[in-house]
Amino acid sequence: KYDMSLRYKYSSKGSGIEENSEEEGVSASNKYTGIRYSFSYVPFSRLILDSRFEFVRTDVDRSEHEKGYMIYQDFEYGLRSIPLKVYLRYAWFHTGGYSSRIYTYEQQLLASFNSTPLYDHGQRSYLMLRYDPSQHLSFRMRVAGLWFSNRSTVGSGYDMTDSGSRHEIRLQVIARF
User: Fold this and answer.
1) Which of 17-21, 50-54, 102-106 has the lowest mean pLDDT?
2) What pLDDT is attached to residue 164?
3) Would you call 68 exposed, middle or buried from its count of C-beta atoms within 10 A (0-12, 13-18, 19+)?
4) For the chain, which end, N or C, has fewer CB atoms within 10 Å of the first or last residue's CB respectively?
5) Which of 130, 38, 121 is nearest to 82 (CA)?
6) In what order do the strands lie in the sheet with 121-134?
7) Residues in CB range of 148: below 8 A, 6 or more apart
8) Residue 157 φ then ψ, to 5°
9) How far apart are CA 135 and CA 94, in angstroms?
10) Is there a contact between 46 and 77 (Cβ–Cβ < 8 Å)?
């Protein structure tokens, strides 16, 4: 019924020679420290609740550092009377910038993968429905949203929107012969 995990991750990578170093040959390094706590609870067979808290800290060039936090709650529920599964997530994040971004795996449509980097200040949520009326036919729908509280645009280039949010709707029909 219960599952808990705690992960600590530390990495240090050299990024080359510092440009403004008084000593020649001194290399700069990027350091990453991450702590992740996950908790999963199954109150009954058709309901799964997953929670995660994550903290990251990045140090670049010994003088700049960024911190980031993310917390999310997942709900997975399978109805008894009809073959429908519901997946729901709500995530809140607050980071210092892109170098302290946090990635999370999300439930997706079949043969699809999404790992959106969460950075700055905002929220992300999605709802996915999976309906399997038979072993030969499956329908899936996914609605997702990303809202930034401190930005007026999302994306860059042709992908940029003049809004602090981005939404997507995906539909999938799978027929097995």
Assistant:
1) 17-21
2) 85
3) buried
4) C
5) 130
6) 2-17, 27-44, 47-60, 64-78, 84-95, 121-134, 137-148, 165-175
7) 120, 121, 122, 154, 164, 165
8) 60, -135
9) 42
10) yes
18-37: string of b/e by CB count within 10 Å (b at 16+)? beeeeeeeeebeeebbbebe
CB distance 102 to 118 below 8 Å: yes
- Contact present, 130 and 138 (Cβ < 8 Å): yes
* Cα(142)–Cα(63) distance, integer angstroms: 42
**Residue 137 tokens, joined:** 């036919």
Structure token digits, residue 20: 């403004």
Q: For residue 63, what are its two tokens?
A: 């003088």
Residue 122 has pLDDT above 70, yes or no: yes
pTM for the model stands at 0.83
117-125 average pLDDT score: 93
Q: CA of 140: how far to CAs of 113, 130, 133, in Å? A: 14, 5, 11
Instruction: Kindly state the DSSP code that residue 116 receives in the 8-state scheme.
Output: P
d(CA 163, CA 98): 19
